[in-house]
Amino acid sequence: MGIYDTELIALRDFASFQTAYITQLHNVIARLSPAQPAPTAVEAVRVDAQFLSNSIYKYLSTLGVPVASAHFVDAAYWLCSRQDFDVVVREDATERAAYLVDRFDCDDFAHGFRAAVSARYGVTGIAYVEGPLTTGGVLHAFNLVVFSDGVVALFEPQADQYVEPLSGGLYDLAKGGLIEI
Fold this sequence. Notes:
Blueprint: H1 3-32, E1 45-48, H2 49-63, E2 69-71, E3 76-79, H3 82-91, H4 106-121, E4 126-130, E5 141-146, E6 152-156, E7 161-163, E8 178-180
Parallel strand pairs: 2-8
Antiparallel strand pairs: 1-3, 4-5, 4-8, 5-6, 6-7
């Protein structure tokens, strides 16, 4: 077995770990959340990874933002309109989870929101984003959403709010970052 085979096994194992981790996050959020009525139906359209890639890179290039790393794990994604996404946000309970430093913090909220929306609504065009280290040495995680019309927005799952990408501090992607979708 060569180095290439070892790298493929490591990537497969990482993907399995990641899937299990996101499933566990979804289960934790479901347990912490009060019983919810059935979700409102949203219209999700299937697109290929290239559509997502083009939308994200176009968005970042208009901001003059370099992408340190963008990782697309699926061949196809399901996107909804911004109007439907706003319904999803109103119904989602991720932001109600208790913030626990280094136990359930920004990265867990971002992964959890992404997993909950995928499981509950079938919408998968939500990326996990790690912004760059701030001057205070803080790394912050949040989400990037691609809508069915190709428009992209940054979303803070802890507050259920859209955020500005170049506002400095936690959402300043001008210094790069990691995007995983």
